Fold this sequence. Notes:
There is one protein chain. Helix content is 28%, strand content 22%. By secondary structure, the protein is of the alpha/beta class. The protein has a 9-stranded mixed sheet with strand order 4-1-5-6-13-12-11-8-9, with helices on both faces. The chain has a two-stranded antiparallel sheet with strand order 2-3. The chain has a two-stranded antiparallel sheet with strand order 7-10.
Amino acid sequence: MIKKPVIGVTLDSRESGEFSSYPWYAIRKAYCNSVVEAGGVPFPLTHDINLIDAYLSVIDGLIITGGRHDINPTLYGVDSIHPTVILNPTRTAFELAIAKAALERNIPVLGICGGMQVINVVLGGTLFQNIPDDIPNALCHMQKEPRHKTSHPIKISKGTLFHNILKTEKMDVNSFHHQAIQTPGKGVIVNAVSPDGVIEGIEVPAYRFCLGVQWHPEHGASPLDKEIFTSFLKAVCEQR
């Protein structure tokens, strides 16, 4: 029997509130279902930095998920914090640390929404803290439609890994983010943008597989979204 690849998936967390007055971890089923459908085994990662080496000895690939929080701007060299910024220090510290460690080991990494921003910051890049205030004439990137619906197109650059995966220069995506990449990090290639110039996709050719998307492909709003997880799992299997 062939062993299925194990994919580490980062969790969301709160100290209290919403459905529990005690600290909790959570993850949307769509993330796990997307891994299973692509042929992998989802492995939830708690936010214990001391376990990172142990996690990386078990997992074959890493997915950094999105969430309702932002990276502290001081971590990419900005002192002022925009009023819209919501911090989750424990989660952010863990995700930055495990992303850095995974890349150092050349383990395939897929960053989704905030996860793409984590990759960029790990590699020395910066972020716009609030799109409506920082980018003139920007589209609405916090759609009111359900997550399984698309809200705007993106243009995909020829010659990139992402173009090679999707075999198209255009697709429609959903959109649930108020921040975006400002300055790409070291070695980061921008592979997709929205009509207003907001960066929607990145890749880092120096690594076996390092891809980030600013939307949420786990909801399958576009038929092409599945190809992102399929290509990620293919890269994971090729390195085993």
